[in-house]
Amino acid sequence: MTGLPKLWTDAAQRMAASVPVIVATPQGTPRGTVLLVHGRNGAPAQPQIAEIALAYLARGWRVAAPELPHSAALPDSGPPDQLTFTGHVRAATGVWDWVAQQWPDTPRALAGHSLGGFAVAHLAAASDDTHHVLAMSPPMSGQVLKRAREAMGPAAIDEVRRESPAYFAEMQTADAEPALNLIAAPLAVVTGSEDGLIPLKDARAYFMAAQNGRFFGALPGEHHCPAGAPCAGMLNAALTALGA
Fold first, then answer.
1. Any coiled-coil ranges, and where (predicted)?
2. Could you read off the pLDDT of 70-92 as tens digits, one per residue?
3. 79, 78, 89, 95: which is closest to 20 by C-alpha?
């Protein structure tokens, strides 16, 4: 994971509405801008998010990574127990609109990890000009996450119910499949073959629900938050397939 701790050193922090956004710019003129959305209790500095950012920067893309509300990893983002699927999508949509206003004349792409993958499916479905979508360890629905936790045992269910009660309640109805069906942009999925939160069959279902799936890759031995050299290679292959 060489370079991850230094990734955001020279990045600029800006604001989209009330959401802080860390913007990292490659050398030279950016080819485009990717909105990189973290998951539940995520943050731009987490290794799996930084790994995605490095892959884009290496290809000349500007990266806008928001610190979305109600993440336990971001102490200033608000109470984690107020997180919801709809709130995460709504906050990401506000930043996506801001990205379009800031850089209207170059391609815009979407990338997300875990719940961020759920969010970018909705954003892409509503945006005809999305260049591509990259999802890492993405859940297609709240039911996917609920089933996985049930398989882990009662303690896993009790944990999410206690930590994020509204999020837990929304697991019953949250669904990105209709949005994925509408996405015309090229889409890729990278996941860990041993992911317990998003089992491989569910990550594949997310991919298959899209009209224009271009790349699906599962990293052997990796779990929910892949990072490191094999992940970097897989991301590079995915971005090649997406024309990034």
1. none
2. 999 999 999 999 999 999 999 99
3. 95
pTM score of the predicted model: 0.94
The neighbouring-strand residues paired with 112 are 37, 135
Region at 3 (left for phi over 0; alpha for psi -120 to 50; beta for the rest): left
Are 149 and 66 within 8 A, CB to CB?
no
Helix segments in 72-219, DSSP class H:
85-102, 115-125, 142-152, 154-163, 165-170, 177-182, 200-209
In DSSP terms, which residues pair with 141 in a beta bridge? 175
Report all structural domains of the chain as residue ranges with CATH numbers, in order of start: 12-242 (3.40.50.1820)
Question: What is d(CA 143, CA 124) in angstroms, rounded to the nearest whole number?
Answer: 21
